[in-house]
């Protein structure tokens, strides 16, 4: 692992040009979409590249609901990343929105990273996605994630599986990476930057995301709930941040955050609250700590749990969640 397979099929754009005898580096910018089925590590990769916690990570598939914009700022380039929900068969309104978002994420892109993971065979869902990607008008890179697991799985022939993927789509380049252990991600990023077109800085350099603070805070709460609840709380757990208020306390600033957790059934409410409220308390504590790190301020977090039957089909709630 760790080596690149194919070299770019066309020569990369010139890295610099000469202006009045001076070597002037060209500024590159553009949109990069990370596409892959649920759970392959898209959010992990995005957070690693951007260097901030933007996308939530869980070991349950389909936790990413939005198009998440993460921005990698370099002196010579700005790459704007989208973390897409998995492309799959949509059973509900919310899932329809998710799939639509995912498909939209392929158009207007400068580069697509197709992300998959170490596995024995080409996954059927990958075949479906690659069929969609065949129509893409921009370079598509193949990244096979979770290569840190290879030593534990000698039965997996990574060379063979890579060739199988390459036979399904004409990838510009191929990478074997581990987003978890930060292996070979630099090489992937380098290739992405090299493929970006010449362009302006779209966002101020310190920007890492265009998501609202409310949305990121809500995602933190949702991540903790997904992580802590052993039972499946599929798409039926949603979080809305109702208010964020800053309060001066002596020479310290306290941020009061109120959030509502929506579930679909009272049985789910029982799971979220837990025995003697322990689950909600633990999720709240973990979320508060992450929020304090993110905001650099003391946080008072109040969580409510509400049962709203079929909230995943309620457009008002979805809108408040930023979907
Ligand atoms: P997404 O659904 O594609 O966004 O996937 P996530 O980023 O949420 O990751 C799904 C799970 O895979 C989480 O438990 C991650 O910790 C795990 N994961 C992500 N990248 C790697 C990796 O490189 N190696 C291993 N072993 N696990 C990973
Ligand atoms: Mg994700």
Would you give an account of this structure?
Helix content is 31%, strand content 25%. By secondary structure, the chain is of the alpha/beta class. The chain folds into two domains: 28-195, P-loop containing nucleotide triphosphate hydrolases (Rossmann fold, 3-Layer(aba) Sandwich); 213-320, GMP Synthetase, Chain A, domain 3. A six-stranded mixed β-sheet has the order 4-5-3-6-7-8, with helices on both faces. Strand 6 (111-117), helix 3 and strand 7 form a beta-alpha-beta unit. Helix 6 runs antiparallel to helix 8. The longest helix is centred in the last third of the chain and has 18 residues, at 278-295. Residues 36, 38-44, 57-59, 63-64, 145-146, 148-149, 178-180 line the site of guanosine-5'-diphosphate (GDP).
CATH fold-type name of the largest domain: Rossmann fold
Over the alpha carbons, how many angstroms does the gyration radius reach? 21 Å
- H-E string: EEEHEEHEHEHEHHEEHHEH
How many strands in all?
A: 11
Full CATH superfamily name of the largest domain: P-loop containing nucleotide triphosphate hydrolases
Count, helices: 9
Q: Please give the order of strands in the largest beta sheet.
A: 4-5-3-6-7-8
Uncertain runs are 1-21, 62-66
Structural class: alpha/beta
CATH class of the largest domain: Alpha Beta
Q: How many separate structural domains? A: 2
Could you estimate the helical fraction of the residues in percent?
25-40%
The ligands found in this model are: guanosine-5'-diphosphate, magnesium ion
Head-to-tail CA distance between termini: 38 Å
**Outline type:** globular
Proportion of beta-strand residues: 25-35%
Largest sheet: 6 strands, mixed
CATH architecture of the largest domain: 3-Layer(aba) Sandwich
The overall average pLDDT, rounded, is 80
């Amino acid at each position: 692992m760790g080596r690149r397979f194919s070299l770019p099929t066309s020569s990369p754009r010139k890295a610099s040009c000469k202006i009045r005898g001076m070597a002037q580096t060209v500024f590159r910018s553009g949109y990069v979409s990370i596409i892959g089925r649920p759970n392959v590590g898209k959010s992990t990769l995005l957070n690693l590249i951007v260097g901030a916690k933007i996308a939530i990570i869980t070991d349950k598939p389909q936790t990413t609901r939005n198009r998440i914009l993460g921005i990698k700022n370099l002196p010579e380039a700005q790459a704007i990343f989208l973390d897409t929900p998995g492309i799959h068969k949509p059973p509900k309104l919310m899932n329809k929105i998710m799939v639509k978002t995912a498909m939209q994420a392929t158009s207007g892109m400068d580069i697509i990273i197709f992300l998959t993971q170490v596995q024995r065979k080409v996954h059927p869902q990958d075949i479906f996605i690659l069929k969609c990607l065949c129509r893409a008008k921009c370079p598509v890179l193949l990244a096979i994630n979770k290569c840190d697991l290879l030593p534990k799985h000698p039965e997996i022939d990574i060379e063979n599986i890579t060739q199988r993927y390459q036979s399904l789509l004409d990838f510009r380049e191929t990478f074997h990476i581990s987003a978890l252990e930060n292996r070979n991600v630099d090489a992937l990023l380098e290739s992405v930057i090299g493929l970006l077109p010449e362009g302006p800085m779209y966002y101020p350099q310190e920007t890492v995301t265009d998501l609202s603070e409310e949305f990121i805070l809500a995602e933190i709460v949702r991540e903790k709930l997904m992580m802590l609840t052993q039972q499946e709380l599929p798409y039926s757990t949603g979080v809305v941040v109702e208010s964020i208020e800053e309060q001066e306390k002596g020479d310290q600033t306290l941020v009061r955050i109120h959030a509502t957790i929506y579930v679909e059934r009272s049985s789910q409410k029982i799971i979220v609250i837990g025995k003697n409220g322990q689950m909600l308390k633990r999720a709240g504590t973990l979320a508060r700590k992450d929020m304090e790190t993110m905001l650099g301020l003391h946080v008072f977090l109040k969580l409510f749990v509400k049962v709203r039957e079929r909230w995943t089909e309620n457009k008002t709630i979805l809108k408040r969640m930023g979907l």
